[in-house]
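During the second year of the project, the team shifted from modelling isolated chains to modelling whole assemblies. The rationale, set out in the original proposal, was that interfaces cannot be judged from single-chain predictions alone. As a representative example for this report, we include one of the complexes processed in the last quarter. Its constituent sequences, exactly as entered into the pipeline, are reproduced here:
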Amino acid sequence: MMSSASAAANFAKGLEGIIAGETRICSIEQGGLWYRGYEIHDLAHHATFEDVAFLLLEGHKASAAEMARFKGEIVAERPLHPMVTGFIESCGGYLAAGRAVPMDVLRTAVSILGHVDPDSQDNSPEAGLRKSKRLLAKVPTIIGHMQNVIDGKAIIGRELGGDPTLDHAANLLYLMTGSRPPKEYSRVIDASLILYAEHDFNASTFTSRCIAGTLSDMHGAVTGGIAALKGSLHGGANEMAMEMLKEIMNDVGEKGIGTPAVDEWMQRAFDTKRKLMGFGHRVYKNGDHRAPILHSMGRAVAEKDTKNPGGHAAVKWFELGEQVQKIMLSKKNIHPNVDFPCGMTYFTMGIPVPQYTPIFVASRVTGWCAHVMEQHANNRIIRPLSMYTGEAARKWNG
Ligand code: COA
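Output from the structure prediction step:
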C-alpha cells in the first residue's frame, strides 16, 4: 500500500491548482478569458453565438461563406428523430408534475440521440465534427419540446425544429413559446450562450474528457457532461441563484430592497453558513469576467421591460441582486459568478427556472464537443491516483 505521507505530497482536494491536461480551446486567467485567443468581452459584444460555436468546433474564425454553410448545416439538423420526440412526450406527465426535471430528461434525450446518429460509434475527427453540429442543433429543440409538454401545448417545430429563418438564440425562444421573440431578448440570450460556451477544465468538461479519454463515444461524453453540469455547485447554480433571490424578495418584500432588511437576511445566511448560490469560483478570485457583461445586458433589457415577473417590475430583481452582491463583497469578499446575473436575466425575460441549466447545456455542448474532439485527437486515458485513508492491510480469515 502507498504510504499516506508519499501520496499526500501530490494531493490537492478537488484537484485545486492541478494542471490535468493541455488544451488549445480556452484560456482562463485572473485577468481574462479567451476562446481560441479571442477575449470574452470582444466576443460577447461583436460576435454571435453561431460565430463562437464555429470558432470552438472548427478551430478558427469563420469566413462569410463558411458561416453561411455552417448556419445552413445547423438549421437542417434541428428536427429530432421521432424516437427522441416520443421519449419527451412520454415524460410529459412527469415533467408537468415536476417529478422529472428538464435537466434529467435532456440528459436521457441526448443519450437517445446517440442511438439514432449514423456516426455514433465513429470517433474520427470528421465524424466528431458532424456529431457536434447535430448535438448543437438539436439541444434547443429538445428544450423547446420539453417546455411544450410542460405547458400542455402541441409540440412546436416537430417537422422543422423551429423557424428556419431564426438564428439559434431566437429559435430557442421560439421553440419554447411559439412566438418570435423581441430582438433585444434574442440578443441577450445570444450573449448568454456566448458567455456559457466554454470554460476550460471545469467539472462537466473534465467529465466529458474523462469519458472521451477511454475512447468512448461523443454522445456518452456529452451525456456525462450534462449530468455533471446539473449540480448546484456547477451549472445548476443559475437556477438556485434565482430561487435564492425569490426567497429574499418573498421574505423582505419589494419595499425591503435598499433597506437593512436585506442585510439582515444575508446575516442570517452567514450565521447558518449557508452557501449563497451564484457566488464564488474555483479559479476567479477577483470576479468572474462574464458576470458584469451579462448583468449589464440583462439589466438594460429589464429597465425597458413592462413585464412584471413574480409580481415585481423586472428591474427590481436587478436592484435586489445588486444589493445582495454588495453585501457579499463587503462581508465575505466573494464576487458573483456568471450564474448570478443569468438567473435574474432569464427570470425577467419570463423563462421558467427549471430551463436555465438546460439552456446552459445548449451553449456548453459546443465546449464539450470541442474538448471531446481534442481529447480523441491526442489521447491518453485520464487515470489519476487517490490517497488511501482506509483500514491497514489485514487478513480475511485472521
Ligand atoms: N457562499 C458562501 N460562502 C462561499 C461561497 C458561497 N457561494 N463560495 C465560497 N465560499 C466560501 C467557502 O465557504 C470557503 O470559506 P471557508 O474558507 O471559511 O471554508 C471559501 O469561500 C473558499 O471557498 P471554497 O469552498 O474553497 O471554494 P471552491 O473553489 O471549493 O468552490 C464553488 C467553488 C464555485 C463551488 C463555490 O464558490 C460555491 O459553492 N459557490 C456556490 C455555487 C455556485 O455559484 N456555483 C457556480 C460556479 S460558476
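Residues 14, 233-234, 237, 275-282, 334, 337, 339 surround coenzyme A (CB under 6 Å). The chain is about 60% helix and 5% strand.
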